[in-house]
Amino acid sequence: MPKELSYTIEEVSQLLKVSKLTLYDLVKKGELPVFRVGRQMRIDANDLDTFIHREKRTDSTKFQPPVRELNKNRIKDSAVIVISGQDFVLDILGKYVEKRTSFKTLRSYTGSLNGLISMYNEECDIVSLHMFDGDTGEYNLPYTKKILVGYPYVLLNLLSRKAGLYVKKGNPFNLTSWGDLNQDGITIVNREKGSGARILLDEQLRLNEISARNIKGYDHEETNHLSVASAVASGHADVGVGIEKVAKMAGIDFVPLITERYDLVILKSAKTEHLISVVKKILSSSEFQSEVHSLGDYDILNTGTVYYDSF
Prior knowledge:
CATH class of the domain at 162-259: Alpha Beta
Number of strands: 14
Radius of gyration: 21 Å
Shape: globular
Helix content: 25-40%
Structural class: alpha/beta
Order of helices and strands: EHHEEHEHEHEEEHEEHEHEHEHHE
Number of helices: 11
CATH architecture of the domain at 162-259: 3-Layer(aba) Sandwich
Distance between the termini: 57 Å
Low-confidence stretches: 57-77
Largest sheet: 9 strands, mixed
């Protein structure tokens, strides 16, 4: 049997020099066929070639993001929805959505702020958020109010979890607070711009009047919690910001500093009315909450709570 060549979304994104969100949008519209291996999407090489030949243009718009031709606040006609965020619980949510609706769910592993911006551009259907606002001490709502201007939406809780510092076994620098990041000799590993962990760090540095320029390793970025924890575990960094569960996975110590609210936002429209209703029922169900609770290190006390519901 001849070997069939296929690509991941990440690989096609690099090949075509476009964002992964652009590709998710093409998939949702049915313009770029995909198949799945487990929960990972793959694109057949022949389908990619067909798409490229079909889309070839002689003008400067070649491979630019597609024009948004649809009205605000609607799920596209495709039976596919995109869930943005990195926590494993979002995969569980996707599984429940597929069980209770005709939708197929795709995952975009994008940070909170970038996911919210993609929702503003009508590229995502469910976005997960954990963005700390230092001025109010509140999570998520200050950002959604500023970015989703003109959009009605619902913001509801998925879970809460501890966030803080990843440190080496024994915490050799005795780090116990955000202010301790200003110690001499400490090397940090950071998250990418737009991620909730990056926002948390930047806000805490601002509140503690610590200049990022004075922190060694601030420009060393990783794109997920596990990579940050691994950098600390391997000795490439002394400290990083992340969540409790991943510290245990990486075999390092964890200094809890804040309980972060991990929420979901969904735009409201006639097209999303059913989706919102289903997600609310899933989050409130004992079956979903028991499965999340069994994972450990997640607080489900407020799971399903609606924190904001605009007109």
